[in-house]
């Protein structure tokens, strides 16, 4: 794989900083929200779940429109608009004294759906041969922000309270907006021709390759959300690890996943190799789910299964958006990445619902068992597309 140019290196590092800074604010809420939200005066279990999940609804509905908008007005203006809305939602949640007020704030945060436009900007600034490497850098930065949030969320909440954490998400979004304009390169206007018609967009999204890639990210994030329904409970109840020490599993696992990504990145040089790698990752994810289901008394098995899961997850997080950005026409790239992000957040919503139902009806074994069955539905999809290279069919 060719080396990154100075422009690509700068683009990758600065965009990774912008994206991970915003997501770090989101992740900070996760390890503490459900515990403290139950004490609010209007709290019910349904409202606690609604406050967590309503963010994904806004993301699902607005990724494509904001992606299309970025094709018309430019990536940076569209991303800025999304970050402003996101910061406003954080402020509403921070100043709310009821759970329903937080629901409104979280809904506004979800409307700042900039993931598709941000990934399209990364694709605009990189060559095809280096796109997987750039996506990998961004993916690693997101993983690091997630890990840091798991470690820092509880102590920061102890200092600033839940409202303070929401306020911090707004400040981080505003900081990301400043970095976007000061540090991230701006693509040449010639690289963003006028957007295509609605017919062109629908034809692109209905293509076999795009359906497979969007279906794959749906399953991938359904698995991720489902295991986080059961994994914290497994660590706390079966292995008696306090929440404040869950990082002792996540830290070594993420280090291993980063090393695996570095070893396998050269195999993403072309679409055919990436397609075969995706098949292998789906199989690995299924095996990891099975390992977690059996790991209720074997700590070493849980560590191994988690390392396999996050290694495969990180590879797919780099490979899938890279394939989408390669096969989408440049003037439709924002719409394509918006649809991709929509599928991602829909998968997260479905995975949370499936994981919650499985936990209530089947217990911890059922959470991981149901997640494993999702890979059985996913595998035929990627095998179908692995026999020939990805590409938009043309008349």
From TrEMBL:
SUPFAM superfamilies xref list? MFS general substrate transporter (SSF103473)
Q: What residue ranges are annotated as transmembrane?
A: 12-36, 48-69, 81-104, 134-152, 158-184, 211-235, 247-265, 277-294, 300-320, 332-358, 364-384
The GO cellular component terms are: plasma membrane
What start-end ranges are recorded for coiled-coil regions in this protein? none
GO terms of molecular function: transmembrane transporter activity
Q: Output the InterPro entries linked to this UniProt entry.
A: MFS (IPR011701), MFS_dom (IPR020846), MFS_trans_sf (IPR036259), MFS_Transporters (IPR050171), Sugar_transporter_CS (IPR005829)
Subcellular location per the Swiss-Prot or TrEMBL entry: Cell membrane
Gene3D superfamilies associated with the record? MFS general substrate transporter like domains (1.20.1250.20)
What range(s) does the Major facilitator superfamily (MFS) profile domain occupy? 11-390
What name does UniProt use for this protein? MFS transporter
List the source organism.
Answer: Luteibacter pinisoli
């Amino acid at each position: 794989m060719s080396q990154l140019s100075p422009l690509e290196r700068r683009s990758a590092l600065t965009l990774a900083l912008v994206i991970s800074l915003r997501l770090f604010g989101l992740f900070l809420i996760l390890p503490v929200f459900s515990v403290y939200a139950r004490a609010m005066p209007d709290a019910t279990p349904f409202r606690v779940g609604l406050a967590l999940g309503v963010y994904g609804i806004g993301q699902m509905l607005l990724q494509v429109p904001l992606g299309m908008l970025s094709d018309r007005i430019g990536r940076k203006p569209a991303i800025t608009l999304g970050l402003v809305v996101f910061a406003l939602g954080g402020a509403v949640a921070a100043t709310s004294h009821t759970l329903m007020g937080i629901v409104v704030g979280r809904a506004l945060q979800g409307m700042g759906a900039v993931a598709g436009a941000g990934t399209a900007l990364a694709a605009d600034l990189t060559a095809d041969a280096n796109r997987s490497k750039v996506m990998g850098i961004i993916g690693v930065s997101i993983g690091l922000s997630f890990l840091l949030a798991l470690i820092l969320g509880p102590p920061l909440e102890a200092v600033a309270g839940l409202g303070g954490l929401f306020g911090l998400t707004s400040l981080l979004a505003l900081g990301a907006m400043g970095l976007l304009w000061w540090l991230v390169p701006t693509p040449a206007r010639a690289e963003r021709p006028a957007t295509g018609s609605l017919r062109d967009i629908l034809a692109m999204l209905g293509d076999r390759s795009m359906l497979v890639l969007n279906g794959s990210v749906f399953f991938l994030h359904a698995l991720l959300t489902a295991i986080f329904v059961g994994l914290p409970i497994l660590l706390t109840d079966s292995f008696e690890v306090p929440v404040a020490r869950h990082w002792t599993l996540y830290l070594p696992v993420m280090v291993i996943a980063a090393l695996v990504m570095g070893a396998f990145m050269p195999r993403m040089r072309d679409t055919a190799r990436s397609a075969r790698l995706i098949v292998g990752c789906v199989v690995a994810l299924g095996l990891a789910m099975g390992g977690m289901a059996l790991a209720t008394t074997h700590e070493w098995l849980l560590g191994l299964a988690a390392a396999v899961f996050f290694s495969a997850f990180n590879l797919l997080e780099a490979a899938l958006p890279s394939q989408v950005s390669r096969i989408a026409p440049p003037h439709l790239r924002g719409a394509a990445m918006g649809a991709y992000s929509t599928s991602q957040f829909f998968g997260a919503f479905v995975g949370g619902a499936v994981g919650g139902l499985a936990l209530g009806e089947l217990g911890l074994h059922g959470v991981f068992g149901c997640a494993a069955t999702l890979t059985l539905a996913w595998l035929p999809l990627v095998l179908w597309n692995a026999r020939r290279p990805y590409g938009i069919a043309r008349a």
